[in-house]
Every structure is written in structure tokens, then in C-alpha cells.
């Protein structure tokens, strides 16, 4: 005799995309929507998890570009679909062998209160809750892993080396700089405002920082800070900054390419004039995606958790409360005024 | 009672440079000269060796460029000085603890019959004489090591990968292609004449080859041979060829930079337009110098000697007999007509 279980249906607030976007997202590219959801996985949902979203992450990759990133693992903006992005969430029910009710996870989720997620490949279980859960959207999540991979795996740093970071105020740049300082490197960053330059020097402990908008000659600016040249350039900008860095690299220097922000919204990329100089100094240029390095997550935690617990890493968060404030929060990270990692808080538990 | 030993003085024919050179050397940039030499090391010559030169190597690096290679280990052309280059030589007398009379060595020597050499840092003892001694100027010397390092160390190849080699007819390109075939890769090369293209396919076993001078659209040419893209690009050309390769790289592809021939004699290097594409495919670009990898020479011999003994590697040599024919032989390698590795033979033993 079949037993009929009455399943509670609850409201599920969502943020959806109006359309595909090009360039930076605006608040008006998104809209609030509401549906209902049964807080139980349907029988056919094998390997799926039902989760309650706690913290949603606003990240610089959540934009459109003229040139699609072909190897992107997911699309953030699909017309009339819920926004997709990283977050921290709690498992309410699981049909996946690796996860059980009550587990706290971080990974790719959706901008809604409750989600049924089937793409569980890059979920990470949160075992350490003595640090703020929201950190798993940043310092202990994808941006933190990106900084770790960029610096240790691709950069292959040695104590005392000279490190230059463009777009140093970004979530990843900030952390790369601090990791470099902790290793005993000399660290200089570039950023786009006087305020950011001051914060890099005073809060994040950079040895130097400059406002690239005030430099007419980027080569001269780099020579001012790197009389002996650059061992590791953490590249996030492209174009003229890359050209200036190329002629200032030291022998066997490494250029770690996380992005080339200046190149995404122009129809023809700016030509690079000084690539040939890598021959004279045996330079390595390497682009990477964090997705290829997630197997190092346990090793990453071994490095980062002690740094956080001992207060050796500075980290600033900005919280937007509730999904209603999500679209504005996402827009804000592209206007260059946010003071730290932007997180949308749905629930604290 | 001091014993006075009568030391034989012999004629020592030499090839000297008239001046510094820019661009490719011509026969007329050099002149024959003759001096005498005592076939005994002077008492003050500690750590020096007196050698008889047997084979001298003509290599593409023996030229002048507008941009000096700052990290070059030696200068080939210095006014009124004997030409410097790689060779195979026999030790007549040694004050260096690592070498003794009768040793056969290869390394950096001078274009003369007898030399007193003090820069013994990159000398290699020749222990295997069942292969032609002249091979130690090429296949088993610096060019061979360069190919080995380029392919195995920087290229990090896997069986079945797609390999493209520009300037594939050069000593290093030929060998990289053959090593790639021996590993089970798909190999295509570019060269500058129909004859070279045929030899690459028929003699060196390349899967394909094309004459870049006959291709109006290098991107289309690469797409014709690499429908699924390139895993390893052995880069020797720069400029337009590099730009075409950049947009045809596969995910996590590697560009091994041995040189950028097309860029050395122009006052401004050609701008590279497609560097940004490395981000979309997580490409690594790495320039190297063989000097950083000479510690791998024993490992290299373990790989190459069996290949040579089993006839698995094709290698062509062109011999010029005597120092008198040296200047013309060196000029010839830059005219693009030589059929193989150019060696100047001074003595067979």
C-alpha cells in the first residue's frame, strides 16, 4: 500500500537574467522572481542535492565578453534563467553518495534561496567552521585557490624574489601580494586609484604601489620600483602594462596570466610589441584556470587556514543582505569602488 | 739544477674576425691568419688545457643581431680575434683536474689548429666513440641537447599529441620532429623551400610539411594540418607565424621558444596580435637556453645513443675540409642551401 507523503512547498525567491550580457553587468540586467519549491528531491533526481543557499559570491568573471571564454565551466547569464555563481550552501537532502543532510558545502550554485544541484563535480565540503563561513566565497574559495595556484604552482616563487602584481587590489591580486610577502618577496602592485594604492601599502603590506592612471610611461614606473627587474609578474591587465613588464623581466622570470582585463571589451586586442624579449631572458608566460588545480584544495587549506587563524592575512568583506540587494551588489564590484570581497547574504545558517 | 726543456713551436693556422658583425656572416668578414704555438702549457696556466681541434661546428647562432643577446656565454666575432664556437678536440696537455692527455672533448673552442682553453666549464668528455666524432658538434652536441631540452623538458610531450615545428629544416627542428615521431606524436613542419618540405616528409618522416613562402594565410595553413589544434609548437620564427599558431593552440598547449629568427634583423619587432588567446586555452609559452640544462647531458645520451645506434634518427652532415674552407662553410649555412649540419674538419684524430 503506497504511502503518500505530503511535501511542504515553500516560496523560493530568485534572481534571473533578462538576457545574455556583454561587458559588465548592471542591476537592470537582472530581475527578482519568485517560484515555489518542494523541499524534497524528486525520485528521478539521482546524484542530486537539495540545498539551502547561505552566501552568494560576486566575482569579476560574472560578466560578458566579446570573445566567449570557450572553456568556461558554466554560464552566469542565460535569458530568464537563474544567475549561476559560486556560493556557500547547506545540504537539506542528498542523493549523492559524497554528501549528506547537514553538510556545508561551497561550489557552483544559483542565485535563489533553495536549489536542486546536479553538477556536483566541483563541490567542496567545509570541514573548518572556526573561520567565517562567508570566507568560502573568497579567501578559502575559488578566488583564494586562484591566488594560491597563481603564486605557488605557476609562479614557483623563491624567497627574496621581486614580484609585480597588476590589478593588485582585486580579490586575487590582494592575496597573491600577501602570500608573496609571507614568503619573503619584494612586492609592488598597480591599481586604479590613490585610495587603492594607499590600502595596498598600508593594509596589505606591499613594499610599493602605484596608480597606473597617473603614469605616462609604464616602463619608467616599473624601472622605478624594480631596478633589478621582475622575477614574477602576476598579469591581470594585458596591453600596455604587459608590454612594459616584458622588457623588465629578469632572467628566467615568470609571467603568471590570470587575465587581461584591458583586452576583453575591445574588438581587436592591442598588439604586444615586446614578446621577443622573452628570448633574451628565458621567460615563461603561463595562463591557467583554477579548475585544473582543484585537486590541490587540501594542500591549499593547510597553507591558508593557519595564516587566517594567526591573523597573517588581511581580508575585507562587504555584505549585501538578501537576494533583493544581489543585483546592485553584483553591479557594484565592476564600478571599482567596493572596499572588499562582495558577498550576498541569504541566511547565516 | 734547473733542467731546460726545449719545447717544439709549431705553426697554428687561425680564422679571425675582421670586425664585429651585424646580421649573417659572410666569408669576407673573416680572414686566415697564422701564428706559432708552443705545444706545452705555460707554467702560469692553471686549470687550462692545451688541445688539438678536430671538428668545428657552424651554427645559426654565429651571427650578429641588432639586439645583443645579453646572456650569451661567448662572442663569436671580436675584431682581430680568433672565431669562437663549438667543436670537438683532443687534449694534448691538461692542468685541469677533470681532464687528461688523450681525452676527447666537445665544447666551446676556437677556430684554429691548437688552442689553449681556460673556459672549461661547459666541456663534455666524449666516452662513446662508436659513433662518428663529428656528431658531437650536432646530434650529440649543443644542437642535439637543445632539441632534447626543447622537446622533453619544455614541451612535456605525451604520446599522440599534435606537434608543429617552424623552421623545421634547421638542425634543432629536424631533431625535434624526429623525437616527436619516435614518441608517437603527429608532426608537421614549415620550411622555406619545396626541396626542404620534401625532405622533411620523405627523409625525416614528418606527417606533413609546408612551404611558408607559398602560404598567403598561415592561419588557414595551420588549420589544414591541425583540424583539432596544436599541443606543442616549437617556435623558431616569431612574427606572423607565432600569431597564426597562437590562435590554433589546444587547451593547455605549450609554445617552446628556441628563437624568433624573423625578428632579429628588424629595428622594431613585429607586434603580436593574438597573445590574449593564451587565456582561453591556458597556454604556456616558454623560452629557454640550453646552458641551463647541461646537467641533463648524461640523460640525453641515454636517450640519443640507442636511437643513433639503432638507426632511428636521420642525420646529414656536410664537411668542409680544412680551416681555409671554414669562412665559406660558415657563410653557407645562412644562405639556406646546405643539406645538413655543416662541419669544418681540421683533423680526424
UniProtKB/TrEMBL annotation, chains A, B:
<feature type="domain" description="Enoyl reductase (ER)">
    <location>
        <begin position="34"/>
        <end position="344"/>
    </location>
</feature>
<dbReference type="GO" id="GO:0032440">
    <property type="term" value="F:2-alkenal reductase [NAD(P)H] activity"/>
</dbReference>
<dbReference type="Pfam" id="PF16884">
    <property type="entry name" value="ADH_N_2"/>
</dbReference>
<dbReference type="Pfam" id="PF00107">
    <property type="entry name" value="ADH_zinc_N"/>
</dbReference>
<dbReference type="InterPro" id="IPR041694">
    <property type="entry name" value="ADH_N_2"/>
</dbReference>
<protein>
    <recommendedName>
        <fullName>Enoyl reductase (ER) domain-containing protein</fullName>
    </recommendedName>
</protein>
<dbReference type="InterPro" id="IPR011032">
    <property type="entry name" value="GroES-like_sf"/>
</dbReference>
<dbReference type="InterPro" id="IPR020843">
    <property type="entry name" value="ER"/>
</dbReference>
<dbReference type="InterPro" id="IPR045010">
    <property type="entry name" value="MDR_fam"/>
</dbReference>
<dbReference type="InterPro" id="IPR036291">
    <property type="entry name" value="NAD(P)-bd_dom_sf"/>
</dbReference>
<dbReference type="InterPro" id="IPR013149">
    <property type="entry name" value="ADH-like_C"/>
</dbReference>
<keyword id="KW-0560">Oxidoreductase</keyword>
